[in-house]
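in:
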């Protein structure tokens, strides 16, 4: 298994570097490696971003990824190859559609539909942020927050991973829910995110495509946190078990993923061991880039 270097965006770019393979089930096939993490299963954002990269590499007429709809079927092994089979469902003048199925150990572990658009003239609307948010430079990094803190199920390895093992610096408003839920159990939060260093080129993807994959990658880390926050649950609670169930993402506008982005999130529902989170990515000048909705399992054992 590859040794992980902390505090670098290379973790993400390694995850979305695909190897083309001979297809066995559909039209095109690629493989990629899930990245190290301290949990029993691979990070779900690896699968979303790798599937996005595979789908984008199958579209050669200039259309841009505008949406993904995903289901997580089985846990993925860490540091192991995942095979992505791409079916070319439709290529029209304005829109194209792909299905991507991910396999590991010869079993399907993830499936998504991805839509691509050529783009055309039309109206424009920008969602507005009504609440002020502190600047990221005024907030502690995950590493600074966790320095000298311990508790619950947190290990040195998980502390290291939260601090610098996820390719992106993350700064929470209110404070993180790693160890405790501070203050009132409100159903919303915001997270400033920025690559630890400039994103490297990714073979087979343009920089714009790589940046779309970066949003798909980083969105999964914190999308269930507003649900945990309103339920008063911290990640390090020993009885807590979570898993991504399904995921939808819409890419509204292009924008470089190089500086800070504001990821505004809210809890939509929690019931019967499941929770739904909604998130929106904004640039610092408040351009709305993408929207995410995810349902996850939230279980106390």
């Amino acid at each position: 298994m590859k040794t992980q270097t902390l505090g670098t965006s290379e973790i993400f770019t390694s995850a979305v570097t695909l190897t083309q393979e001979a297809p066995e089930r559909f039209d095109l096939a690629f493989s990629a490696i899930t990245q190290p993490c301290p949990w029993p299963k691979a990070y779900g954002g690896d699968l979303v971003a790798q599937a996005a990269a595979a789908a984008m590499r199958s579209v050669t007429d200039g259309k841009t990824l505008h949406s993904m709809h995903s289901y997580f079927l089985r846990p993925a092994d860490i540091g192991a190859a995942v095979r992505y089979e791409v079916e070319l469902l439709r290529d029209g003048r304005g829109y194209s559609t792909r299905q991507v199925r991910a396999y590991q150990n010869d079993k399907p572990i993830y499936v998504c539909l991805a839509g691509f658009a050529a783009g055309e003239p039309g109206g424009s609307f920008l969602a507005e942020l009504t609440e002020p948010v502190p600047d990221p430079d005024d907030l502690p990094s995950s590493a600074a927050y966790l320095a000298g803190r311990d508790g619950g199920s947190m290990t040195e390895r998980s502390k290291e991973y939260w601090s610098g093992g996820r390719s992106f610096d993350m700064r929470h408003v209110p404070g993180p829910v790693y160890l405790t839920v501070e203050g009132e159990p409100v159903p919303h939060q915001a997270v400033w995110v920025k690559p630890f260093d400039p994103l490297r080129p990714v073979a087979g993807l343009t920089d714009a495509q790589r940046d779309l994959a970066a949003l798909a990658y980083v969105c999964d880390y914190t999308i269930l946190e507003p649900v945990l926050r309103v339920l008063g649950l911290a990640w390090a609670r020993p009885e807590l078990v979570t898993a991504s169930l399904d995921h939808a993402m819409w890419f509204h506008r292009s924008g470089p993923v190089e500086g800070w982005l504001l990821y505004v999130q809210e809890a939509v529902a929690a019931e019967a061991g499941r929770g739904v989170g909604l998130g929106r990515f904004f640039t610092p000048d408040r351009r709305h880039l993408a929207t995410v909705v995810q349902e996850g399992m939230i279980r106390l054992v």
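note: The radius of gyration is 18 Å.
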